[in-house]
Design a protein that fits this description.
single chain; about 475 residues; Beta-Lactamase; Rossmann fold; Helicase, Ruva Protein, domain 3; five-stranded antiparallel β-sheet; five-stranded parallel β-sheet; 16 helices; 14 strands; ATP binding; Homeodomain-like_sf; Transcriptional regulator AcoR protein; ATP-binding; AAA+_ATPase
């Protein structure tokens, strides 16, 4: 408690009818003071104001939520705590807005774009008018590991506060407008095509076609005609008018060649000529067709090793790799909690169900090694949402592949003895260590031989909030 408003008196000089009015006025001003203090305390966060009357929502909101850049609730005023029902009766803090409002993240995105007239509907079907205020402008001395505000660009929408991804996005943003062919490397399911589409959307070619080809999926007997097209009457069964190949279909836009490492060697020679001459020769034709296309390739293979083995042309490799972008595996990313909430909201909206995770399920997802990366995470969430009831996803809804905890521990984190009856989760281990050191982040970082920024990232990923910020 910060203060008390006292209107008591030893005697009543006049009629008692005015006491009820005095009580209401005092309660009103107490709430206004509390909300003003709350807004000042969380001035470095997005403040989501909700009210049943649109005219008063900006200055006299019924509910106020402090939200971080990833849509996670970090603070709630008394009205919000009394009105919103949190999962299992626990604190609102650490939950995404989508846990309490239908299409919550999408609505907040609209608010951040200064869209008026946005309403949020809770899962109990209460409707609120909404307004949002921006965080206080951070000074130039803000640490580089602070979360980056969620802007609207297709590239920025790919990541939360993971430092590796933010560096990659910064590079991609500079390369998007340059006439350079790019090679994207990353494990299967890490989001290579998503990055390619984001590059296309951020480029001057965004209104032209984006043509994606999986080189590993096309039969070798068809890949040549599919890529280059053919002239009328080239072979038996061909279309009478001929066919425009995928390369020509991408004219003016972007051609995405996925799994380029699986392209047959014989076809690599023809592709090299297309890239060098910027023209394509359809099968059965002797007239080349000029081609204006930006080529983005992707692979999970080590192309340099394939070159050394003689299964991939060295000159094609250097032609494709005008610039190389390496996507990290999901297990290496510090923003996995942000990704879980973003994909959960998206999949729940597609299935028309409620986006909510039980706390033990969230910890299980954070602890998983994710060999299939983002594709595996999306499939797990889709499967679990299809089985879950209105109370949200619990452990019984997860697929069998997540029934046991991965044995690989996160770097720098302490693990419990195999003899322990109930091994601690990464979240429990970090919480225990923070408690032992009285939440001295610097001391915990020294104990684990890691940087303080690493501890802050783990705290954000595991939804751990310092007690002094719990309001």
């Amino acid at each position: 408690m910060a203060a008390v408003l006292d209107i008591s008196a030893l005697s009543v000089p006049g009629a008692r009818e005015g006491q009820q009015l005095a009580w209401h006025l005092t309660s009103l001003y107490a709430r206004l003071i509390e909300d003003s203090y709350f807004s000042h305390h969380f001035r470095d966060h997005w403040l989501l104001r909700l009210g049943r009357n649109a005219a008063f929502v900006d200055n006299h909101a019924d509910l106020i939520l402090a939200v971080d850049d990833d849509g996670m609730i970090v603070g709630a005023n008394t009205g919000a705590r009394q009105t919103l029902q949190s999962p299992n009766g626990e604190s609102l803090l650490g939950h995404g807005v989508g846990a309490f409002f239908r299409d919550g993240n999408a609505r907040i995105h609209s608010l951040k774009q200064d869209h008026d007239g946005v309403r949020l509907r809770s899962w109990s079907d209460d409707t609120f008018h909404a307004a949002i205020s921006q965080p206080r402008r951070r000074s130039k001395s803000t640490p580089r590991n602070q979360p980056i505000p969620a802007h609207t660009g297709p590239l920025q929408a790919m990541a939360g506060d993971d430092a590796t991804m933010q560096r990659l996005i910064a590079q991609a943003a500079r390369l998007a407008n340059k006439p350079i062919d790019l090679l994207i490397q990353g494990e299967t399911g890490s989001g290579k095509e998503v990055l390619a589409r984001a590059l296309h959307a951020a480029s001057p070619r965004s209104n032209a076609p984006f043509v994606a080809i999986n080189c590993a999926a096309l039969p070798e007997s068809l890949i040549e005609s599919e890529l280059f097209g053919y002239a009328p009457g080239t072979f038996t069964g061909a279309r009478q008018q001929g066919m425009k190949g995928l390369l020509q279909q991408a004219h003016g836009g972007t051609l995405f060649l996925d799994e380029i490492g699986d392209m047959p060697v014989a076809l690599q020679t023809r592709l090299l000529r297309v890239l060098a001459e910027r023209e394509v020769l359809p099968l059965g034709s002797d007239t080349p067709v000029a081609l204006d296309v930006r080529v983005i390739t992707a692979t999970h293979r080590d192309l340099a090793a394939l070159v050394a083995a003689g299964t991939f042309r060295e000159d094609l490799y250097y032609r494709l790799a005008g610039g190389t972008l390496a996507l990290p595996a999901l297990r290496e990313r510090a923003d996995i909690g942000w990704l879980i909430d973003r994909l959960l909201e998206h999949e729940a909206e597609a299935l028309g169900c409620r986006a909510r995770l039980k706390p033990d399920v969230r910890e299980r997802l954070l602890a998983h090694n994710w060999p299939g990366n983002i594709r595996e995470l999306r499939n797990v969430l889709r499967f679990a949402l299809a089985l879950a009831d209105d109370e949200g996803i619990d452990m019984a809804d997860l697929p069998a592949s997540l029934a046991t905890v991965d044995t690989a521990a996160l770097p720098g984190e302490r693990v419990t003895s195999p003899a322990d009856e109930q091994p601690a989760t990464p979240r429990d281990s970090l919480l225990a260590h923070l408690g032992e050191r009285d939440w001295n982040i610097a001391q915990v970082a020294r104990d684990l031989s890691v940087a303080r920024s690493t501890i802050y990232r783990r705290m954000a990923r595991l939804q751990i909030v310092d007690p002094k910020y719990r309001h």
